[in-house]
Amino acid sequence: xxxxxxxxxxxxxxxxxxxxxxxxxxxxxxxxxxxxxxxxxxxxxxxxxxxxxxxxxxxxxxxxxxxxxxxxxxxxxxxxxxxxxxxxxxxxxxxxxxxxxxxxxxxxxxxxxxxxxxxxxxxxxxxxxxxxxxxxxxxxxxxxxxxxxxxxxxxxxxxxxxxxxxxxxxxxxxxxxxxxxxxxxxxxxxxxxxxxxxxxxxxxxxxxxxxxxxxxxxxxxxxxxxxxxxxxxxxxxxxxxxxxxxx
Length: 247
Hints:
This protein is α/β, with parallel strands linked by helices and about 250 residues long. The protein has a single domain (about 5-245), classed as Spore Coat Polysaccharide Biosynthesis Protein SpsA, Chain A (Alpha-Beta Complex). It is about 35% helix and about 25% strand. The chain has eight helices and 13 strands. The chain has helices spanning about 15-20, 35-45, 60-70, 85-90, 110-120, 170-185, 195-200, 225-245, and strands at about 5-10, 30, 35, 50-55, 70-75, 100-105, 105-110, 125-130, 140-145, 145-150, 160-170, 210, 215-220. Strands 1, 4, 5, 6, 8, 9, 10, 11 and 12 form a nine-stranded mixed β-sheet that branches. A two-stranded antiparallel ribbon has the order 2-3. β2 (about 30) and β3 form a beta hairpin. α6 crosses α7 (about 195-200). It is globular.
């Protein structure tokens, strides 16, 4: 049973700062609730007890958040200005002792995104959606529902079988392989994304993929994404959530 989640929230959000001000992306408010508090609420509803948040930029926002929510563990990426998402993941390494859900902080999504991962009988699963045409997508190549590769450049892939949502289920074995992979990559640069480490680690620990073609979700990397969330994604989520009682 998965009872732990790790949220990567150290980034500076350089492409969106002009639209949201001097706040971490997790504190973007959509429909009266910040993205990070929405994720915390949903994770709690699915029985997640411990939520590890790796912070960096404007960490004081998360410190205040942790005072208001039980079971929040804050870890700091002190190199957040000079590193990629995998280094934030790496900062959580020694604090992980069991399988967990891995999430990005700038996501909004419907309950199915969490439900299908928890219900899956596989230990290591990357969640995919159908085409969103949102821009800046991470495309996923699979073979028999097993991860082959991921890239923002679809021309480098043998096939495009879905889009990465940014929510995955990670076993302790895969986690340790990702940490070993990262340590090798960090010898050259700290600017490593966690997606590339999952792909590399999957050569030792096969990673399965799960696709929800019509999943309602979005991430916020730039102003275009922000408008899409407010105008298209959230209105659909609102209607769905009015029909489904909270757990």
